[in-house]
Amino acid sequence: MHRSLSVLALCLLSACAVSPAAEVTKSTATEAGFGVSLPPAETLAAPVTRSPGRGNAELARDFLDLEFRMESGRSLPVLTRFEGPITVALRGDVPASAQAELQRLITRFRSEAGLDLQPAAPGSAASITIEFQPRSAMQRVVPTAACFVVPNVSSFAEYRAARNTATVDWAQLTRREHVAIFVPSDTSPQEVRDCLHEEMAQALGPLNDLYHLTDSVYNDDNFHTVLTGFDMLMLRLHYAPELRSAMNEAEVAARLPAILARLNPAGQSLPSDPKSIAPRTWVAAVENAFGVRGGPDGRLSAAERMLSMAMAQGWTDGRLAFSWYAVGRAQVVSDPERAVRAFTEARRIWRALPGGEVHVAHVDMQLAAVALSSGQNEAAISFADRAIPAVRAAQNAGLLATLMLIKAEALENLGRVAEAKALRLDSQPWARYGFGAERQVRARTAEIAQLGARGARG
User: Fold this and answer.
1) Considering only the top CATH level, what class is 280-457?
2) Is 217 in contact with 228 (CB distance < 8 Å)?
3) Which residues contact 268 (CB under 8 A, 6 or more apart)?
4) What residue spans define the domains of the chain?
5) For 91-146, what is each residue's pLDDT tens digit?
6) H-type helices in 38-149, by residue range?
7) Where are the beta strands (DSSP E) in 238-280?
8) Under CATH, domain 54-268 is a member of which superfamily?
9) What's the first-to-final CA gap in the chain, in angstroms?
């Protein structure tokens, strides 16, 4: 299981080349070489952990699909989990932000999911080992992964030795004993946090991702980057005392209604609309639409296949919205007017879905960029202002910095130079947290400045 290199690269009307999107949080500290203090964690809104706004019958179907299927389409024969206390250790070239991020995450797991989770004692073997390796070393092994989790090993060396054997096959497990998570050591603080959230969630609980979940990190669209209320409920279910390792799907399914009634009583009276898993052909189109190969024409063709298949399936959920988003993103350079129509349709659908606020904010960022590039500076400011509250709530520092920089360019084009300068300065700590290296911050700043210049030329 792995977190993909993000399909949400911010294509801001320039070359439209795919690059990892920014994704997070850090207590007050200075990042080496930056010379600017990172924003303290408390300046970001606390995570929103609302209960899922749908019925328990639907949640039960989602849980079974998360637990007994894998992203590859393979089935898992039994539920597996840790039995007893769970310990976690950091190893390798640990980034400065990682320890604090892990401690915050452990606190959330304990308080929101009821997990018996704590740091491993120094020198002891941990249930979950988080090892930091250079990105280049990781990508020689798993080229498309930003970070990933593997069973039955405790180090990167062990994984390389056991790779492609039954030892590291999740389907061979009946119980989890040791799991390793591998995270780049040379990445942004935000990506470190996001990897910890997603990979810890899968090291502990369900292994699958479902594209129809708009309120979860268990979704390969990567819009949500910190664990949600839905995710914590899934983990509570996973470790419910009524369940145990090695139960098959039928055994788990028989117990779920009573467990959900106990853990999520509000869901008993809510309507349910269970979703089927997206077919592999649609998932393949997603991978091509947001991939690094194929060029603009190939990405547009794949995005149009996504949309055609979503409509043929009769979907009205986040998968249809994501298909419209893909079409818009693929045309943001070649046909901005059509891109805006596609983004607007995606926005309409996501607005009505649980957890869709962050998706809407991503659409508004794209619309703000189009408006800035076309000289519609007031509209660019409006789109940015509309998105910023949801982005703060989602704790996405990179997206927050992007919106602030777009707004700053629009302000400058309107002659409000002092406001623009102040906003650019305010954006820098978020940009350094979200994008990491100074050159990446400068590249994103320059990219947005080019949009502003294009709009100013009319």
Assistant:
1) mainly alpha
2) yes
3) 55, 56, 260, 261
4) 54-268, 280-457
5) 999 999 999 999 999 999 999 999 999 999 998 999 999 999 999 999 999 888 88
6) 56-68, 98-112, 135-141
7) none
8) Collagenase (Catalytic Domain) (3.40.390.10)
9) 47
